[in-house]
Amino acid sequence: MSNLWLLGLGAAATYLMRQNAEVDEMKTAVNNTAIPAEPGPETQAIRNVQRRIPDADLNEDLNMQDLGAQDVKRIKQERERAAQEVAAYESGPPPIQGVYLHFDNHGV
Q1: CB 72 within 8 A of CB 59
Q2: φ/ψ (deg, to 5) at 69
Q3: What is the pLDDT of residue 58?
Q4: In which element (H, E) is residue 80 found?
Q5: How far apart, in whole angstroms, are the C-alpha atoms of residue 11 and residue 18?
């Protein structure tokens, strides 16, 4: 009777080891099915494409047929200047400058 718990412990350990093996087999099967049939492009190739933005995407909000190269350059410079102004404004409040107010006897 005292060795019954030892038998139960052995049965539980056997059950857990079998479950662990089944989970490992299932994990391997799922990982093997997740591998694509045709591998895509390398990460470096994708990053090289992302570094260069096509002109069509870069200038999508400009009507290029009615603008010359100088106009596009000027518009882009103005856009960059405006973006810098926004960044400067949002970076924090400017230093507070004021005048010391002095009240005399009459409160003026």
Answers
A1: yes
A2: -65, -40
A3: 67
A4: helix 69-90
A5: 11
Integer CA distances (angstroms), 33 to 30, 36, 37, 43, in order: 5, 8, 9, 22
Residue 37 clears pLDDT 80, i.e. is over it: no
Tokens of 37: 């049939």
Paired tokens of 65: 């047929």
- Assess contact for 75 and 62: CB atoms under 8 A: yes
* Predicted pLDDT of residue 13: 94
Q: Per residue in 41-53, pLDDT tens?
A: 888 888 887 777 7
State pTM to two decimals.
0.34
Please state the separation of Cα 44 from the chain's center in Å: 18
With residues binned 3-state (H G I as helix, E B as strand, rest as coil), the percentages for the chain, rounded to 5, are: 65, 0, 35
